[in-house]
Model the fold of this input.
Amino acid sequence: MRWRQRASEPPARGIEKVAASLLTIALLVGCGIAKDPLAVALGDGSSATASAAFALEHHSSGRLTGPTARTMLDDARRELSTAMEQVSALSASGDRADVQADALPLLARAVHDLHTAADRIGSAEADAAAARLRDDATALERLEKQAASLR
Done:
């Protein structure tokens, strides 16, 4: 008789239990995948630096108008400044502190090059700054990957 009682229970109860278990597991796994703040800030800095280099290179080749390039440079300047503030505000230790120490001068140089290029857009100085910004973006991307691997 007991078997008949269980068989007569709606099958949804078992499915509800499985669904609740899977949801709990998904939530626990999702909570453990938080992005590293240092890696995120370095990624933002790399992206902003690459965007600035892109704007300068395309303006220099005539594929981007002056106002559009200036807008892109202003956006990159804000993003890069924010990334630098975030990296400098983090308290890191060990290998993470080494990555932070390597990143800060790079970010400072990128901010300086970005200001130089924005003030002299279309000049040889801006073209040289674009090349340095491209190199800085690559270096920041390398540091971002290094920071992400230190989790």
Observations:
- Residues 39 and 145 are 7 Å apart (CA to CA).
- The domain at 37-149 is CATH 1.20.120 (Four Helix Bundle (Hemerythrin (Met), subunit A)).
- The chain has a mean pLDDT of 85.
